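We emphasize that the prediction below concerns an isolated chain of 253 residues; any contacts that depend on oligomerization or on bound cofactors are therefore not represented. The input was used exactly as deposited, without trimming of termini.
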Amino acid sequence: MLKLTDAQTWLDTPIGSYLLAQEQSLFDEIVSNIFGFNALQLGLLQADLLANSRIPFVVKSGEANGDFFCETQQLPIASNTMDLVLLPHTIDFSVNPQQTLREVERVLMPEGHVVITGFNPLSTWGMRRFVSKRCSSSSALWHAHFLSSLRIKDWLNLLGFEVVSTQMACYKLPVQSHSWMQRFDGLDRLGQRCWPMFGGVYCIVAKKRVLGMRIIKPNWKRAKLKRGLVISPSQKDDASASAINKNINKNKV
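Result of the prediction step, given as a C-alpha cell string:
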C-alpha cells in the first residue's frame, strides 16, 4: 500500500497536481448526480472528492488518516448502509483488490453506487510504470497494480454490479517537468477525440443490483440521515468509530 508520506510527496509534483485536478473535475461532475444519505471516500484524502456531493452525511477513511482508520479489505461499517463509495486509486494500492471490492459490495445499499479511478496500463502512464518499476529509487506510485478497466468491470459484474459509465482522463505524458507539462496542454482535448481509450486514468461508475428487489423512494423532505449506519469499532480505530457512531445517533430521524 502506498504510504501517506510517499503519496503527498508525489502529489506535490507537477504531474501529481495535474492528476488531482483532473480527478477532482471527474468526481465533482459524477457525485453531483448521485443521491442518498451516506457517502464514503476511501483513500486519496488529500482531495475532497465529495465536495460537490448532495449527500448529507459524509465520512472519509484511510489507513493512517481520516474520520476513522481501516484497511480496505475489512471495512468497519455495517452491511447495506452506504449509498455512495468512492475508490480513488484504492484498488491500485490494495493488498487484495478483489476483497476490497467485495467489502464495498457488502456495505453498499441496493442501488448504491461505487466510483472507481485507476491507472490505465494501456497508456503512456502504463509505459512509464513499466520503465520506473525496474528502478528501485522510483516513486512508490509507479509500483501500483495498474489493473485494466476491463478486469475491474469483470470483477464488478461477478459481484452483481451494473457498470453505468466509463470515462478516461490524463492524456498528458507523465513527465515531472512543469514546463513540459505546459507544452502538453493540448493533449487532453486531442486524446479525448482521437484515442479516447488511452488516457492515463480511467473512471468507472457502477451500481449495485439486487435481483427481485423492489425500490421504495424515500421521503426526502423528512429524512435527513439514514438509520442503521453503524461503524463497527476495531482495535485500531476504537475511539474514532465510537465518536462517529455517537454523532450518527444524535442525527437520527
